[in-house]
Amino acid sequence: MKQDNCIFCKIANGEIPSRTVYEDEDFRAILDLGPATKGHTLILPKDHAADLYELPEDVAAKVLPVAKKVAALLKEKLGCQGLNLVQNNGELAGQTVMHFHLHVIPRYENDGQKILWNPTQPDGAELDEVLAKLR
Ligand code: AMP
Ligand code: ZN
């Protein structure tokens, strides 16, 4: 199902033109208009889901195989030396377009980008507390 006024629904379903690098029945992969690096690609499901929480399981299961195809393309055609998969959920996490999308970001030597997070150093008790909540 598409959602009115969702730009990624319109792009994924071809109503708004995009620089499509890959397409199948369920997904369209497009070049990001504000790329982190050369070849930064977004994988969009054609059916609307706001985020990972809304994404149906069967669609979720098909995302990573598409990411593998795009990753292979970026390596073969652009010669990237590394790759980040990034998927933001919620404004707090940096999501700006509320239609699920997986970023495929090729990485190159001296590309000016960073690793996403800064590691912290919790003690064992803190980790155990989290573990107790999650199990
Ligand atoms: P996020 O912050 O995870 O929601 O990512 C949204 C991404 O979509 C950003 O990297 C934008 O540069 C990109 N973007 C927004 N509008 C468009 C568009 N019309 N075509 C291609 N990429 C877009
Ligand atoms: Zn949508």
How would you describe this structure in keywords?
binds adenosine monophosphate, 3 helices, alpha+beta, 29% helix, globular, five-stranded antiparallel sheet, single chain, binds zinc ion, 135 residues
Verbal overview:
With 135 residues, the chain is an alpha+beta fold. The chain is built from three helices and five strands. It has a five-stranded antiparallel sheet with strand order 1-2-3-5-4. Strand 1 and strand 2 (27-31) form a beta hairpin. The longest helix is centred in the middle third of the chain and has 22 residues, at 57-78. It starts with 6 loop residues before the first helix and ends with a helix. The model has no long low-confidence stretch (mean pLDDT 97).
Report how far apart the termini are.
35 Å
Overall 3D shape: globular
Largest sheet: 5 strands, antiparallel
Helical amount among residues, as a percent range?
25-40%
If you compute it from the alpha carbons, what radius of gyration comes out, rounded to the nearest whole angstrom?
A: 17 Å
Strands, count: 5
Which stretches are poorly predicted, pLDDT < 50 over at least 5 residues? Answer: none
* Neighbour order of strands in the largest sheet: 1-2-3-5-4
Number of helices: 3
The H-and-E topology, N to C, reads as HEEEHEEH
How much of the sequence is in beta strands? Answer: 15-25%
Secondary-structure-based class equals alpha+beta
Mean pLDDT across the residues is 97
The set of bound ligands, ions and cofactors reads: adenosine monophosphate, zinc ion
